[in-house]
Amino acid sequence: MDASEEQSNTPGSDSAAPAWIALYWIGGVAAFLLILYALATLIQLVVLGGPPTTAAEAFSLLHNHKIIGLLRLDLPTVLVMPLYYLLFLGLLAALWRTDRANATLSTSLVFVGVTLVLATPTALSMMWLSDKYAAATSDAARLQFLAAGEALLVSDIWHSTGAIIGGILAQSGAVLISVVMLRSSVFGKPTAYLGILMHGFDLAHIVLGLFVPVAGVVFMAIAGPFYPIWLFLVGRRLLKLAAASSPARSA
Known about the structure:
Elements: H1 3-8, H2 18-47, H3 55-64, H4 66-72, H5 75-80, H6 83-118, H7 123-135, H8 139-153, H9 161-182, H10 189-209, H11 213-223, H12 226-245, H13 247-250
């Protein structure tokens, strides 16, 4: 491969390969969809409240207001989480030229972390238990379903071992890719520093929350409002890269 061919397949060049351009596009679109999710989640928490705290509350919600129950049991989070695969593929493409080793490592950490989190959802399982609970004809059967529901609640995407390890891996990967951004000319330093601080606080919220729950809540409250800003900056840059690298623009 000669020098001109090598440059044409390099992310960030004016004549990037179509595969890289596609990754820019899907990463940028994923970032803006995640912004919509973040804002919708904020509204949901204010209007509907957080997750149910007991199995009985969850069963009642699912029986009487199924959609509200599924929303409060974080079903939208499960449906939206795969967008992080697309976002970090776009970041990998954009930062490949800067540091392909650490960009690949960070993306791998995020992929493994998100996959672990996706393996722990409880909304659909809780809905099945709710139907069984409603159909139960004896107190003993209802108590069994309540016990099973309580077990599901403590193994959800916020409390289970898999989810916690997955969150640590995903946030570690996000911090690492923000460090790569800092050494790159593709993204501005404000975007990189914001990513390091935001994902760093979120990582601290997961780790410290295991030992000092109040500190975990504080760090999460600090990190949360910055997500839409960081996602906007990253998504806008990826879409600009896609537009600047498209064949029509290059021509």
